[in-house]
Fold this protein.
Amino acid sequence: MSSMLQDSQLTDEVEVVWLEDPSHLDYVRQALDKVSQRRGKPRYSRDGRLVGYTNLCSDAERDTDSGLFARRAFFLLPHDRDSDPTGDYQVGAPGEAVDPSTIEPGRTGAKTPRSQRGRAAETTPAR
């Protein structure tokens, strides 16, 4: 599914579950995945690692075409800033990246100076 999520796609979310402490992460990637269950840790088949996911309310409906539920997964790939601080995303971030401190149930999360430029950009005085 598209990395450009809208809050209207997330109305059934009731909880964000973090598998890792997100406070040390500049950004996480978010994606809306189709899964078979409303709650619990979803299967993860990407490279990298799953760092969080959302749970849905008990009356969330299945997609009429697939019979699956749409739930967000938060993940990082091996070349992301947390694992490779001097790599491709030393400055900048992938399109689907958002600051984990802005993520709430039913809200997509936001791009912030921290997520887009990294901690170094936040601590460098403006000229």
